[in-house]
């Protein structure tokens, strides 16, 4: 890996273009290094994964609204939109598809200094590929770049510590991935990366308190902005520079300030791009840091039947990392995380709620587990409100470990029983994690798609999509339009401005 020291520079300080982080990303995006076979296989897995969760969300309000906006922008050649036929302007197709992919918070994740859902790169890169008449091999290269850039940025630069939303890493990564896809020169990609970052920095209020429908739309907006940035750059338009390192740039003014210093490691010239293999998908429709807790709750339910007796539990403390404690735990200070009338988006970010329901039900369903009647059950509310989280320095250290064998996203549950007894159990990673009890493989991704598409797509459409997706690296340009699905009986979109 090639390490770039990234720090703010005064306007009067010499800072040659070749040292800019945006330039290093542009060089990575133009490197024609071959794609490793295991990386190509994982790209196919994640395209299937994205389609699975997008299909399951096609009738949800944010997705219906975004789809309606895309339908107002037909285009030729254009790109496809999940759920419907026709072709649409690529930035609006990416907007609709990106919202569908993120709505259920059910696709892949990467956690480090910053957290991310790198599968969010796929909708904008795919939309441009379909519009531009690219083939599967070019799409594959573009997606690999998108994953590489977002994950490498997430390893090095924390955004959430400064209450900046994580999509600020997605705008640049999607722009770089589109640059690779189209074979653009480094100069054009440099400008596109800068514009994409400049237009996608926003606060984390979208993931705080009463979480709104914008949570699903934020990464879709970043993907749309990335496409528009690439379009402007191709037309010769330039961007604020140096966008990260400038005196009034992102780092100096929004992140760690003028004295900040980061080390961003990117693949060197000729080095394989393999970051996608460090990411992991979700078995359950919940925020990633809740995945392991769902698995632990299911295990405790099967091993300790006494926990299900009415009034048996006095209190539960989940000892975990700082990040889990303050984002989805009681450390957030959000009363909404204990409110049975809270939105699905809020419950998805409440590990006390998730642990309570998983313990009682022994399962997690992307619809039933969030239903208002499920959240409002008196016995659930009582158990839920007995659960708190606490930061444990060791789990925080493991969360940030760079050693994959040590990195952990779980914790230790200490359950105090009404009769004075205790139950203690811990889990490091989710069962579906590469180091978990049941690591996800191709068959699991296919099963996830079939399960989530059941009742939404016709069986023949399910089989057709899987056939196309599994041939992604060798698809002809005319076959790329097959990387979508057409559903039945979808609700009509509400009327808007256009």
Which structural category fits the helices and strands?
A: alpha+beta
Distance between the termini: 47 Å
Low-confidence regions: none
Describe the sheet with the most strands: 4 strands, mixed
The shape, in one word, is globular
| CATH fold label of the largest domain | 2-methylcitrate dehydratase PrpD
What is the CATH architecture assignment of the largest domain? Orthogonal Bundle
How much helix is in the residues?
40-55%
Mean pLDDT: 96
Organism: Amnibacterium kyonggiense
Protein name: 2-methylcitrate dehydratase
Domain MmgE/PrpD C-terminal: 284-470
Subunit structure: Monomer.
What's the layout of helices and strands?
Layout (H helix, E strand, L loop, with lengths): L1 E5 L14 H10 L6 H20 L4 H11 L2 E8 L2 E5 L1 H13 L7 E2 L3 E2 L5 H11 L3 H21 L10 H16 L3 H13 L15 H21 L15 H5 L7 E5 L24 H13 L9 E8 L1 H6 L16 H4 L3 H11 L10 H4 L2 H7 L2 E5 L1 H7 L11 E7 L4 E6 L14 H12 L5 H12 L28
Helix pairs in contact: 1-7, 1-8, 2-4, 2-18, 3-4, 4-5, 4-9, 5-6, 5-7, 5-9, 6-7, 7-8, 7-9, 8-9, 11-14, 14-16
């Amino acid at each position: 890996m090639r390490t770039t020291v990234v720090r703010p520079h005064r306007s009067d300080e010499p800072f040659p273009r070749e040292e800019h982080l945006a330039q290093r990303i542009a060089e990575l995006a133009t490197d024609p290094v071959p794609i490793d076979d295991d990386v190509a296989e994982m790209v196919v897995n994640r395209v299937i994964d994205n389609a699975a969760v997008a299909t399951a969300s096609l009738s949800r309000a944010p997705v219906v609204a975004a789809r309606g906006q895309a339908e107002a922008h037909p285009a030729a050649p254009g790109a496809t939109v999940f759920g419907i036929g026709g072709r649409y302007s690529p930035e609006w197709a990416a907007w609709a598809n990106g919202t569908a992919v993120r709505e259920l918070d059910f696709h892949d994740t990467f956690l480090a200094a910053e957290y991310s859902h790198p599968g969010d790169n796929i909708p904008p890169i795919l939309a441009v590929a379909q519009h531009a008449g690219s083939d599967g091999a070019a799409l594959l290269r573009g997606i690999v770049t998108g994953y590489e850039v977002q994950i490498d940025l997430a390893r090095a630069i924390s955004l959430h510590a400064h209450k900046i939303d994580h999509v600020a890493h997605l705008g640049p990564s999607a722009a770089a991935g589109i640059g690779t896809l189209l074979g653009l020169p480094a100069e054009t990609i440099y400008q596109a990366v800068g514009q994409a970052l400049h237009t996608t920095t926003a606060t984390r209020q979208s993931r705080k308190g009463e979480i709104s429908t914008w949570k699903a739309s934020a990464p879709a907006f970043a993907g749309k902005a990335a496409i528009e940035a690439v379009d402007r750059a191709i037309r010769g338009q330039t961007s604020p520079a140096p966008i990260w390192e400038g005196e009034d740039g992102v780092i100096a003014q929004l992140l760690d300030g003028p004295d900040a210093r980061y080390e961003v490691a990117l693949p060197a010239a000729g080095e394989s791009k393999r970051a996608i293999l460090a990411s992991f998908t979700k078995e359950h429709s919940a925020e990633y840091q809740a995945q392991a807790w769902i698995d632990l709750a299911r295990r405790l339910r099967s091993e300790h039947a006494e926990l299900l007796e009415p009034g048996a539990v006095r209190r539960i403390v989940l000892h975990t990392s700082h990040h889990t404690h303050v984002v989805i735990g009681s450390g957030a200070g959000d009363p909404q995380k204990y409110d049975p009338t809270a939105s699905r988006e809020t419950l998805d970010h409440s590990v006390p709620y998730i642990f309570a329901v998983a313990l009682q039900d022994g399962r997690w369903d992307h619809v039933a587990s969030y239903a208002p009647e499920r959240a409002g059950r008196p016995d659930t509310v009582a158990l839920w409100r007995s659960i708190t989280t606490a930061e444990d320095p060791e789990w925080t250290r493991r969360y940030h470990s760079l050693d994959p064998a040590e990195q952990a996203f779980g914790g230790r549950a200490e359950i105090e029983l009404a009769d004075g007894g205790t139950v203690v159990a811990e889990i490091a990673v989710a069962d579906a994690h590469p180091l978990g009890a049941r690591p996800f493989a191709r068959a699991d991704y296919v099963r996830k798609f079939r399960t989530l598409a059941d009742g939404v797509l016709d069986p023949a459409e399910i089989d057709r999509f899987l056939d196309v997706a599994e041939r992604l690296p060798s698809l002809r340009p005319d076959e790329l339009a097959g990387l979508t699905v057409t559903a039945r009986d979808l609700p009509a979109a509400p009327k808007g401005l256009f």
